[in-house]
Amino acid sequence: MARLKSQQTLKSILHDYFTGMKSPIAWCTSAGPVEILRALGFEVYFPENHGALLGASRTAEKYIPRAHQAGYDSEICSYLTADIGAWLMKETPLTHVYGIKSIPTPDLIVYNTNQCREVSEWFNFFGREYDCPVVGIYPPRYLEKVSQADVENVVAQLKNLISIGEKIIGKPLENEKLTEIMMLSFEGSSLWKKVLETSIHSPAPLTYFDGCILMAPIVVLRGTKICVDFYSEVLAELEDLVVKNEGAVQGEKVRIYWEGMPVWGRLRSLAELFAQNHTAVVVSTYCNSWIFDAFDPQKPLESMAYAYTQIFINRGENSKLKMIKKLIELFKVDGVVFHDSKTCFNNANNRFGLPKRITDATGIDTISFDGDLVDLRFFSDGQTRTKLETFIEQIKYKKQAKYSLSHD
Ligand code: SF4
C-alpha cells in the first residue's frame, strides 16, 4: 500500500509526533475539542489512534483478554478493551515502532460523547489510573438538526473545559491563539476533503484503504501547520495522478461506498481483495468524519460546538441517509458495503433498516459483513471474501446487463 510518495512523509511526521511529545499533555477523543487544548498549550495524544495501532499491528488479541479479566465485557468497544488490556500489561506497540517506553502521561483527559458513551468509560478508567482530571463534553445525541440551543449547550461545556484547562496550565487562554489554531484546523480539514474528493474521478487515485492510512494527521495533528502542509503535499500528488489518469486499482470496473469502521488488522488483505476484483472503494463515512466544513475561526467556540455535534455518528437516521445518498451520487457509487463491527454498534449502521432505505432511495445494492475494528475473533477471512466477491460479481453482471440493454 506504499503506492503514494506522501506515505513516506507520513512516516516521518508520525515519528516526530510520538517521539517529540512532551508535557503538558492532554488526551482527547478523535472528534473532541483539540483546538482548545492546543490553544491552552497542551500537546495532544489520542487513545483511539493507539487503539487503531493495536489493531493494525495485530497485537490487540493479546491484550483484549486482559481487559476482560479486569471486568470489561467481550462485546464492548475493542479499542477500549485492547487499550486498557495493553495498559494493564504495561505494553504498547509504540515501543516497537518508535522506541517509546509507554504511552504519554496525561495532565488532562478530555472526551466528547458525540461518538459514543464508551469513551466516557474508557477515559475515566485512565483518569483513575493516573489520578488525572477528566472532562467530558456531552452534546445532545442522534440529532436530525443541530439547533442554536444545542450549540449553546455545548459552548457552555467548552467554556467549563477552558476554565479547568487554564487552571492546569496556569494562564488564561489567548483568543488570538485559538483563532489561529481554528484557522489551521479549518485549512487541514478542507485539504483532507479535497484529498478524499480526488476519488470522484474515475479511475480513483485513492481508495478507502489508502485513506485509512493517510488520515492519521487529520486526527492527531489537527490544528497544526504540519497537518496543513502534509495534506497540501498529498493533494498535489493525487491531482497529478488524476491528470495522468492513474487509478489506485488497475482496470477499475466497480466503485464502492464503505460504511462503518475499518477492520484494522485486515486493511491490507481487504485492499488486495477489492483490487483483485477490479473494484475501488472510493468513499466512506469513516474517512469523511474528519471533514469539518463548519469551522469558523471568527466564531471559534460556536463553530467548534456545531461542527463536532453535527458529525455523522451523532445524527438521526434521516440525516444519515441524506449524507450517504449525497456521497453515493457525488462519487458515482455502484454498491454499498456495510461493515457490521461487532463491538461498535455506534459505527454499525446496518442494523436499523438503513441499507434498505439506501436501496429504495438510490436503486443501488448493499451488503453487510460481520467483523470488528480490532477484535479479529469476530472476523472470518473466508466468509468475508466469499460474500464480498459474490456482491462484486452481481454488480458487474448488473452493470453489463444495463450496458447491453442501452446498446441494443
Ligand atoms: S465509536 Fe465505537 S470504536 Fe469508537 S470509541 Fe466509541 S465504541 Fe469505540
Describe it.
Strands 2-1-3-4 form a four-stranded parallel sheet, with helices on both faces. A four-stranded parallel sheet has the order 6-5-7-8, sandwiched between helices. It starts with 5 loop residues before the first helix and ends with a helix. It has helices at 6-19, 34-40, 47-56, 60-69, 78-88, 93-98, 118-130, 148-169, 175-197, 208-214, 216-220, 225-244, 267-276, 285-288, 300-309, 317-330, 354-362, 381-406, and strands spanning 25-28, 43-45, 108-112, 134-137, 254-259, 279-284, 335-341, 365-371. It has one domain. The protein is built from 18 helices and eight strands. Strand 7 (335-341), helix 17 and strand 8 (365-371) form a beta-alpha-beta unit. The chain is 54% helix and 10% strand. The chain is α/β, with parallel strands linked by helices and 408 residues long. The chain binds iron/sulfur cluster (SF4). Iron/sulfur cluster is lined by residues 48, 77, 79-80, 115-116, 118-119, 344, 346-347, 373. The site of iron/sulfur cluster has 12 residues, from helix 5 and helix 7.
List the helices and strands and how they pair.
Layout: H1 6-19, E1 25-28, H2 34-40, E2 43-45, H3 47-56, H4 60-69, H5 78-88, H6 93-98, E3 108-112, H7 118-130, E4 134-137, H8 148-169, H9 175-197, H10 208-214, H11 216-220, H12 225-244, E5 254-259, H13 267-276, E6 279-284, H14 285-288, H15 300-309, H16 317-330, E7 335-341, H17 354-362, E8 365-371, H18 381-406
Parallel strand pairs: 1-2, 1-3, 3-4, 5-6, 5-7, 7-8
Helix pairs in contact: 1-12, 2-9, 3-5, 4-5, 8-15, 9-12, 16-17
Bound molecules: iron/sulfur cluster.
Iron/sulfur cluster binds next to α5 and α7.
